[in-house]
What we know:
The protein is an alpha+beta fold. 53% of the residues lie in helices and 14% in strands. It is built from 14 helices and 11 strands. Helix 9 packs antiparallel against helix 10 and helix 9 runs parallel beside helix 11 (342-359).
Amino acid sequence: MKLIRTLLLSIITLALLISVALGILFFMSIEIKPRVDRLTVVAPEHIERARSLLDQHRQRHAEHAPATIKVLPEDIDIAVNYLAKLFTNGKARVTLSHQQAEIHASLPLPLQSMKGYINFQATLTETTALPQLQSLRIGRLAIPDTIGQFLSTRLIQGLRKHPHYGNGLNIIQSVQFSAESLKVVYNLPDRLFESNSYNFPVLSKFEQDKIYRYHLFLVQNSYQTPAAKSAQPSLTLAQILQPLMQMAAEHSGKNQAPIENRAAILAATFHILKLPLAYLIPEAIDWPRPKHQVITLDGRQDFAQHFIVSAAITAYADTFLSNAIGLYKEIDDARNGSGFSFNDIAADRAGTMFGELATESQTTALKLQQWAARGITDKDLMPDWTDLPEHLPKSIFRQQYGNMDTPAYDQMMKKIEQRVAKLPFLK
């Protein structure tokens, strides 16, 4: 009995020591204030540079040759800060130097009962392949280099074995840091997009199943509505969104309304743009296809596209990205296309607010569903736009509104915001 008591006492003492040690480590890891505090900004020029990188990527893929993508330090910094905001509601900063990248981040605790931040600092060092973690500090706790390097090595090894993420890592040959840029050297397989083994997990199976439900509804609807019998079937955006929101309401259990609304909006986006969902979901190549339909908003097909794309971007990202992409599109049109249109911006902003309300919380998502159930028209979705200038060439736009930094431009944007704020679904 004495031996058993001694053994139990030893176990209890060890457990207490471990608990105290973990408590101390936790206390040293948590801080009251964030060390990184900055705005999350995505501007049109950042979208333009991202588009340029994607164009390079497509060109290199067509050549079937090793390629190098060069990213500016500013863009890496903005992207990492944006992702920190998107996934953790935190802030981050990245600084590049010769053969090194230093990352600072402040992430709020995910516990409502406890306030504080996890502040960490990590230094990555360039190698002949993927970067190596050189140092790591969490709050006031400095992680020994050997432990940090061991953990990063094991993490990379685990990711390489993952059926999806491993493929992404394997195409990267090296990552190079400098004060001028981050360079990624990669080599794409010849049949990258034809091989199921290289389909990256953009959407989870859980999300895919929900999207399929709304996609199937849109397919059936495209063949069954009275409009489907005409030579050029046409529906309004309100006729599309109202039944989708009602359907989402039927599946919105505990905290499910934002998820259902998000899936419905994405299915509607691909349907309205007439794009195959296989771009995001490889299995969708075998899904039934809808009958061709023209979807309009307040009589215009381009308004419906602007609205729904902005709603989807906001639902799956956030308002910062949606606003930047919408504005970039108009700037690009002013230079090369149909001209800058403030009425398109109005459709963008309306869609952005719709997507935000649809996915912000269970309360707002249910409120939108209930509003839609009462019956909606396009006038409920699109603000008055008839007096807003459109198709402005670059020279005319610059003459009247400068570089988006004049009182005239601010006044026009304020007018749009005021009109959007009066839309019924925002009241």
